[in-house]
Design a protein that fits this description.
The chain is mainly alpha-helical and 173 residues long. The chain contains 3 helices and no strands. The chain has helices at residues 2-120, 125-152, 159-172.
């Protein structure tokens, strides 16, 4: 009995599908007729308007072409600007990295030269400045001592009597 129920359900479904198809046929036929009539109307309109419709279609096509060209040009400009910006960023980054590497190399070189000069006993700038200052102080002290000695003898130094004595001995001899 179970088999009969299944076959009866299949049969009722088939009958329902045929009923829907018979109801859909008038709608389908009506839709097809409307499409046919729309096509016939378009053909009649094209025959009636003829060259004017052709010129209108050409002008619309030119407008569309102009718009699409300007859009394409704008897209190309945008892509070029983006690529240029990216390239500038990468170039700046590479330049910064090269500068940093060069600065590190320069500092390393300066440190090694400084160490080598220290090992050789060459004075650095600060030591030379201190030595120059010390020599200037010593020169000032020597000048001050010379001035004091010169004032204490009345303006004569020890060399004057010796020079006279040498002249006398040469004349005698």
């Amino acid at each position: 009995m179970a088999a009969r129920k299944k076959t009866s359900n299949v049969g009722s479904k088939a009958r329902k599908g045929r009923a829907k198809a018979t109801r859909a046929q008038p709608n389908l036929i009506e839709n097809v007729q409307q499409i046919w009539l729309a096509g016939m109307g378009a053909v009649a309109k094209a025959q009636k308007e003829g060259p004017a419709a052709f010129h209108d279609a050409v002008s619309e096509g030119l407008k569309l072409l102009t718009r699409s060209r300007s859009n394409a040009e704008q897209m190309i400009r945008d892509a070029f600007d983006a690529a240029q910006g990216s390239m500038q960023t990468r170039l700046g980054s590479a330049r910064d990295q090269a500068t940093e590497t060069w600065d590190n190399l320069e500092a390393l070189f300066q440190n090694r030269v400084h160490k080598a000069m220290q090992q050789l006993g060459v004075p650095n700038a600060e030591e030379i400045r201190l030595l120059t200052k010390r020599v200037a102080e010593l020169n000032d002290n020597v000048k001050a001592l010379s001035a004091r000695r010169g004032r204490g003898r009345g303006g004569r130094g020890k060399t004057a009597p010796r020079a006279r004595a040498k002249r006398k001995t040469r004349a005698a001899g």
